[in-house]
Amino acid sequence: MLTSDNRSSGLRCCIVTPIGPGHQQRYLECKASVQTAFRTDPGPFVELSFAAMDDPEGLQGRSLRRNDGIRLAVEQGADWIFFLDADDIMTPTAFARFKDFHQHYDAIWGGILEVLPGSQQPQLRSQQVAPITSLIGILDNDPTLTLQMGHFIRTKAARNILFDTDMDAGEDFKFYLQAWRDYRCIKQQAPFFINRRGIHSTGPRAADGLAWTEAVAAELVDFRIQNAERIERLYRQAGKHTRGRHIVVTGFSRSGTTMFYNMLRSSVRNFDFLDREYPAARIIGTHPRDLVSKRPLDIFDIPNILAANRRKKDIDFILVLRDIRSILTSRHQKVPDDYFIGYDYQYFIPPQGEPTRTIPGVLPTYQAIVRLLQGDSPGQKIIVRYEDLVQSTTRIQSYLAHCLAFSYREHFRNFHKAEIPTALQAPLNTIDAPDAARVSKWQLPEHRARIRSQFTQCPALFDILIQTGYEKDRRWFEAFR
């Protein structure tokens, strides 16, 4: 325990640090940095204590050990807690910076300062968001650019929140979200600590960056569902999206646009949806509220959509992409005896009569997508890949929320449990949960001749595969010769 001569406030701070496998030596460096900062300038604190929570085999996990540290801080009578991981170090000015904010807030974060692997020089994380003064600032941005473990929080607040001991990844961000919802929080620009990257702890409850990303995405979606009304109210108070909005879902046919639209339709609560595919140009000027429409062929109608926007709504585009090999081998229940779309044409399904191959196919569709992405039309152009929709459904749901301020009532993955209008069932060959196995169905032997024929007739398809990031070169095709 350290003490200072500062008697004006009488505040006590406890540094809570879980120490996992292999971090015992790192913790000594961590603790020394805190002692240096306190001796440099203790800020408003008269007393500093340490809750070094050992977990040498990694069996208990960070959450349980942090919670034990919170309880110890309560027993010690600490007014504030600073959470600091054992592989990080405190900046010399942390306590001095804290004294500028502590009277007005219950939890205080600083800028993200990090040392990358192979470097000795700390640097501010590129593109991070600071300052942040409201929950919207957390929800509207990439979580890697907002908050990190290394912050001050009132002990009473930490005791009321606690960390989720069932989680091995993402428990930190769940804690942050609850703090920003229930207490006065701020992220100011001055760093409180240095994140030493690449020296994570090990053990059975350790997690990597990918696991953290997926867990945080799930927490953000759950948080939006559980706090939908509050979040909508915050957006209204902030004066966001006051002009009215129209989101156009378009892109490749047979790329999962109908499945995606049904996901949105069953989950998003702050937009209107249609019960069928409908041209955006025919409704954008007449629908008075925020609306999401869906029609792959709208990719060819962008100028008319913009011209029809008489209400001056904000327009955003979601472009659904898919590996074109899956598109070229896709079938539609209305055309059971033929592949639905080729490089040149695709089938048109009329309300009455027989389907006809009269609609532009993969190549002209891709050219139209490129024109939209490279053009100067207003609004966001957000790319959503079918493969991500079925393999990382929750991450995509979270990403769209912070891009488009969606408010949720349900998870995307449960779309098949909701009532789906008849017209939005027809393009779906099956109505079930997202299935990652469909991603590679184009590789089945029954489709070899189709792949060989389409790519031989139209070599430009090779370039599309490379430009959309599905292949690096043409060597994959050797197996189809």
What is the tally of helical segments?
A: 16
CATH class of the largest domain: Alpha Beta
Secondary structure class reads alpha/beta
For the terminal residues, how far apart are their CA atoms?
74 Å
Strand percentage lies at 15-25%
Task: Give me the side-by-side strand order of the main sheet.
Answer: 1-3-2-4-9-6-10
Q: How would you describe this protein?
A:
The chain folds into two domains: 2-229, Spore Coat Polysaccharide Biosynthesis Protein SpsA, Chain A; 241-480, 3-Layer(aba) Sandwich (Rossmann fold), CATH 3.40.50. Helices cover 33% and strands 17% of the residues. The chain contains 16 helices and 18 strands. The protein has a seven-stranded mixed sheet, sandwiched between helices. Strands 13-14-12-15-18 form a five-stranded parallel sheet. α2 crosses α5 (155-161) and α7 (209-226) crosses α14. The radius of gyration is 27 Å and the shape is elongated. The protein starts with a strand and ends in a 14-residue tail after the last helix.
